[in-house]
Amino acid sequence: MQLNATAIVVAARAHGETAVIVRAMTEEHGLVAGYVAGGRGRTLRPVVIPGNVVAIDLRARSESQLPFARLELVESRGPWLGEPLPAAAIGWVTALTATALPERNAYPNLYNALSAVLDAICHAPSARGWLQGLVAYEALLLRELGYGGAPPRAEAGLEPLLEIFAAHGPLLERYLLADRRGDVMSARTMLRERLGRMRT
């Protein structure tokens, strides 16, 4: 197996003393995983942050082997991780993607939507500028995996978007995250609490 692509890092888990297992979303190959030697070192630690856009080079001798991955940073989301609301949003959409999708199934619409949502989170003046995109991404993910999910109306204001966001929670938990390890929904709970403060 050999793969070269632009990808969005959606998860990074420590492996051994210095390595990292990275999961990344690509447009043509879907979700892929790879072993990054030295991923916890000074050079690569800023690269394997969920949300980052990277050039990924995956190589494996067989389909059953976890590929070795080499990453090169294309775009960093690091500057926004110090801001509570953008950090929570980036954490949620990447964790949801990494947990809900099967590996090596192409979902080009989801890749493009995830890329657009992350761009909006990082560049919109406030959450009002990206919340609709995030809610639309959740709806698209539900639809792509066969569980319905209606996109929000273009003119939806803050309160309707927060209501749709709340309504998606049980659907995501029941259909996409019920049998998954780890408490992925805690990332969504944190985001919901921070979004709720926008009402005041």
Automatic annotation (TrEMBL):
In Pfam terms, one family for this protein is RecO_C
**One GO biological process from the UniProt record?**
double-strand break repair
Residues of the DNA replication/recombination mediator RecO N-terminal domain: 1-74
Q: Which UniProt keywords apply?
A: DNA damage, DNA recombination, DNA repair
Pull one GO CC term from this UniProt entry. bacterial nucleoid
Q: Does the keyword tRNA processing apply?
A: no
Matching entries from InterPro entries are given as:
DNA_rep/recomb_RecO_N (IPR022572), NA-bd_OB-fold (IPR012340), RecO (IPR003717)
Superkingdom of the source species = Bacteria
User: What is this protein called in UniProt?
Assistant: DNA repair protein RecO (Recombination protein O)
